[in-house]
Design brief:
Oligomer: single chain
CATH architecture of the largest domain: 3-Layer(aba) Sandwich
Bound molecules: nicotinamide-adenine-dinucleotide
Strand content: 15-25%
Structural class: alpha/beta
Shape: globular
């Protein structure tokens, strides 16, 4: 089935009652639609496809902490293991005021797909706490992290499920998680989380890995569509770990970063933003807002910016049916997880805009997390050059295989990535069989 046939099977959202409207389904509904699209390509393995449509385990925890003013606060936390057929669960922890169980379920499922797409020996998992960490002091954040880690301690472990940073979590939070787990176990367990500080068994190159992966697949995809990176204009939404590093690497390669949007606002400069200066501004002021050498744009205008490559690297469901028609880029590289709704995906496809999907584009982070985990187990650490070289090789090989499947079946890169990944997951499932 060609992708346009598949996409025709999906009606536009305004034709559908709201409960069936893909734009209203949320991330888990979007993921389920992606699984529906891939099922016709799974052959005899499709008898196992139901496995992909439900998480293996989902834990909801109450996270009570004492605030600095002496009052108690309760936060809701989650850890979901979507699939562990190919190895331990692996996936980040997000602290955000909009985190929900259904969002964490979707993010855990995308981790299963991503880990299989780049052939890492991991299943998929994800965690989160519904909290705005910007409202907490450092002490409160530490108590929150430690209590959450203790609560999910029944699921995580170096051979069971290995958390990592995601939105609003960082190396320090990973250090507290590692310490809490180790204290409860009575032994230092550096392999329980990745994305740790180097001094605690973290890996060189981990901090930059996701952005480097975005840049690497961007380079590969650009070659396929005959786009010269040195002449390319780039717009980036989200200027944190992923967007900031990706923008820096594209700029270093000679591309022109014309627009950046973050939670504080949108800055634009047709002749190119000074990316190192903008990163410096963000580290001082917390946002791109007020970056004087650039124009400020109303946030809604970001999507219509004249550019060749658009990199959504903030949150999910950002490219929707209401802005996909405005996008001028020749390709979208999904740094964020789930930034494009299925309907927007169809619109971009119909308009001939190449979408490099999250499940391959942002796999660089978990790839170096895998390197970190391997290094922790062997207590033998690699050089940064070695890490970057291995990362680039894995990303290029994975991208080439996915491009070939996309060509063979005449499907989008997203469906091709799902074909490769879901086949691997379900092959493992079939070989292991059902217990009992
Ligand atoms: P981060 O916290 O470092 O940065 C998030 C960025 O998004 C910030 O610049 C923030 O200002 C911006 N943002 C937040 N809300 C926004 C809004 N409403 N509009 C515009 N911008 C907004 O997070 P990160 O680690 O860079 O993660 C970004 C995305 O990449 C997430 O979807 C995450 O799941 C995904 N991801 C991260 C990694 C990783 O290794 N960090 C790996 C794979 C995928």
């Amino acid at each position: 089935m060609s992708n346009s046939n598949a996409s025709n099977a999906f009606k536009r959202s305004h034709d559908l009652p709201s409960y069936l409207n893909p734009e209203h389904l949320g991330p888990w509904g979007i993921y389920l639609q992606q699984v529906e699209r891939v099922t016709p390509y799974l052959g005899s393995l499709s008898r196992w496809v139901e496995t992909l449509k439900r998480p293996k385990r989902a834990l909801i925890v109450d996270v009570p902490i004492e605030l600095d003013n002496g009052t108690m606060a309760h936060f809701e936390g989650y850890r979901v293991q979507h699939n562990t057929s190919r190895g331990p669960g692996k996936g980040g922890v997000r602290f955000h005021q909009d985190v929900t169980l259904s969002e964490v379920m979707a993010l855990s499922a995308w981790m299963s797909v991503k880990n299989a797409a780049v052939n890492l020996p991991f299943g998929g998992a994800k965690g989160g706490i519904r909290v705005d960490p910007k409202t907490l002091s450092r002490g409160e954040l530490e108590r929150l992290t430690r209590r959450y880690t203790s609560e999910i301690g029944i699921l995580i472990g170096p051979t069971k499920d290995i958390p990592a940073p995601d939105v609003n979590t960082n190396e320090q939070i990973m250090a507290w998680m590692m310490d809490t787990y180790s204290m409860n176990e009575g032994a230092t367990a550096s392999g329980v989380v990745t994305g740790k500080p180097i001094a605690l068994g973290g890996s060189l190159g981990r901090r930059e890995a996701t952005g480097r992966g975005v840049y690497t697949v961007g380079q590969e995809a650009a070659q396929h569509i005959g786009l010269d990176i040195t002449q390319a204009k780039i717009a980036v939404q989200g200027f944190g770990n992923v967007g900031g590093i990706a923008a820096k690497l594209f700029a270093q390669a000679g591309a022109t970063v014309v627009a950046v949007q973050d939670h504080g606002g949108t800055v634009y400069k047709a002749s190119g933003l000074d990316v190192p200066a903008l990163l410096q501004h963000v580290s001082q002021h917390g946002s791109v807002k007020g970056f004087a050498p650039a124009e400020t744009l109303p946030d809604g205008q970001f999507w219509a910016v004249d550019c060749d490559i658009l990199i959504p690297a903030a949150l999910e469901q950002q490219i929707t049916a209401s802005n996909a028609d405005q996008i001028k880029a020749r390709m979208v590289i999904e740094g964020a997880n789930g930034p494009t709704t299925p309907e927007a995906d169809d619109i971009l496809h119909e308009r001939g805009i190449l979408v490099v999907p999250d499940v391959i584009a942002n796999a660089g982070g978990v790839t170096v997390s895998y390197f970190e985990w391997v290094q922790d187990f062997s207590s033998f650490f690699w050089s940064e050059d070695e890490i970057n070289a291995r990362l680039v090789r894995i990303m290029r090989e994975a991208f080439a295989a996915i491009w070939q499947v996309s060509d063979e079946h005449r499907v989008s890169l997203r469906t091709a990535t799902f074909i490769v990944a879901c086949t691997r997951i379900l092959q493992a499932r079939e070989l292991r069989g059902l217990y009992p």
